[in-house]
Amino acid sequence: MTPEERHAWTRMLVVLAVAAGVRSVWQQRTVVPAPGVERDVAAAVDTVRALRADADRRATPLEAGERIDPNRADAAEMDRLPGIGPATARAIVAARAEAPFRTVADLGRVRGIGPSTIEKIAPHLALPGGAVPSGLRAPAPESGRGGGGRARAVLGAGGGAPSTVTRIDLNRADSGILETLPGVGPALAQRIVDDRARNGPYTHVDDLVRVSGIGPATLDRLRALVEVR
Which of 23, 25, 147, 205 could form a disulfide with 141 if both were Cys (CB 3.0 to 4.6 A apart)? Predict the structure, then answer.
């Protein structure tokens, strides 16, 4: 064997030895995680599951005749009400800590809730009606909008479930009209309007997923209540 061949074999053996050492170290690191890693991974998985469960709960549509008690429901449950977004839901929870709600009208002291929002949520609250009359009718389409997509929900006696519903046109409705949708608060309604102005009109209801804050679950909740013309 020539000196050159011996040198080549020596270099090959060194390379193989180094590779074997690296592989051994890598296997040890893979099999034996650093202290606390498993605990951190488990905590992260639990957090993701909790967030997913919370999002699914918020996206669950109200059933016919279902009512929510604003003095007991948590923020995720309050977010299921029409026109109540996450921020307003948290504000309701904070406000009741100061004083409980005795009538529907008492929710007017919550920041972000005005008369129109009270009208929308009144039929779905487990509270006395207070100043909100029974048999309430939501506003009809405003003149000059060409029927601009405002949903007309004619409530039954005592504020029951809607008997007729006209779908909201996503390309024509303003933020106030969009807020009548369940789970759509002022911030999300404005993001829909801004997205429409920035990226052009919607060609399909599924285009709503391009708006921040609207995922598959929220889209499924809104699908039967909106349309694109």
Answer: 147
Distance of CA 158 to the CA centre of its chain: 29
When computed from its CA atoms, the radius of gyration of the chain, rounded to whole angstroms, is 28
For range 73-92, the mean pLDDT: 90
- pTM here is 0.42
What is the per-residue pLDDT across 24-51, written as a single tens digit (0 to 9) for each? 655 555 555 556 666 776 777 777 777 7
